[in-house]
Design brief:
Mean pLDDT: 96
Shape: globular
Order of helices and strands: HHEEEEEHHEEEHEEEEEEEH
Distance between the termini: 48 Å
Bound molecules: magnesium ion
Number of domains: 1
Radius of gyration: 17 Å
Length: 266
């Protein structure tokens, strides 16, 4: 069932989103070569709980951590642990926060030190794909407008656009209807709903350097590219209003979610 949120409900999700903004500021500060993904997870959990809120992912279907930490060829659902991030890696941090029963969900891909131009371009295109999807999240459009806008960014560069994992509605549950695909699918063609005010969607493109095909590792969670090539993932929680999309998981409308690797910012 698709649910539409009132402005007071969206206000609670906005507060959850503000906590996520602070999580990403923390990640920008601490992500350096040599830190373990488990250490990032504990610091993020501490930040979320210090606000009196709860991490959405911990315990969700048995997931053991507060963030998903997906490195390089990992697309989504990487489990944080002892593994250290290294110079040249890309790490996706995906996080959800529950504030007074309302969720927000977002992900950023981070450059660890200096990246190859290939990885830098992949992350840039994925961020562009998310921005294109958000710009298409207009009342009166259909769900397929979002999917096509995201897909076009990926295809333009020849990247694999992951079809198997999708965005979603979000509210009192982390995952609600509708599914928000990142490309046109037969299922989307059959069930292409009109977007209405009050809908809140997590839009989350995943682009791969190689094939779009995926497989799940033996831990039962970590989804990797079938060919072992790199993947990038960005996500925001977006409320649809009559005045346009409001991104609940960014500091403001001018925030750049990918600023390039150290090489271009030094
Ligand atoms: Mg999500």
């Amino acid at each position: 069932m698709v649910t539409y949120k009132s402005s007071s409900e969206i206000a609670k999700m906005r507060i959850a989103g503000e906590v996520i903004v602070r999580v990403f500021e923390l990640c920008t500060k601490i992500l350096r070569p040599g830190i373990s993904t488990g250490e990032v997870d504990s610091k993020v959990e501490e930040l979320i709980r210090s606000n009196g809120d709860r991490p959405s992912f911990k315990g969700y279907c048995g997931f053991p951590a507060s963030i998903c930490a997906s490195l390089n060829e990992e697309i989504v659902h990487g489990i944080p642990g002892d593994r250290l991030v290294r110079e040249g890696d890309i790490l996706c941090v995906d996080v959800g926060v529950i504030h007074q029963g309302w969720h927000a969900d977002a992900a950023r891909t981070y450059a660890i030190g200096v990246l190859s131009a290939e990885r830098d371009a992949l992350a840039q295109a994925t961020a562009d794909g998310l921005n294109a999807g958000i710009a298409a999240a207009i009342v009166g459009h259909r769900l397929s407008h979002i999917a096509q806008a995201v897909e076009a960014e990926g295809r333009r560069h020849g990247y694999g656009v992951v079809e198997q994992y999708v965005g979603h509605g979000i509210g009192t549950a982390l995952h609600e209807e509708p599914q928000v695909p990142n490309c046109m699918t037969p299922a989307l063609k059959r069930n292409d709903m009109v977007l209405k005010a009050g809908l809140v969607l997590a839009i989350e493109p995943m682009f791969n350097l190689g094939t779009a095909d995926t497989r799940t590792k033996s831990d039962g969670w970590t989804v990797v590219t079938a060919d072992g090539k790199c993947s990038a993932h960005f996500e925001d929680t977006v409320a649809l209003t009559d005045n346009g999309p409001e991104v609940l998981t960014r500091k403001d409308a001018t925030e750049r979610i990918w600023t390039g690797s150290a090489r271009s910012t030094s």
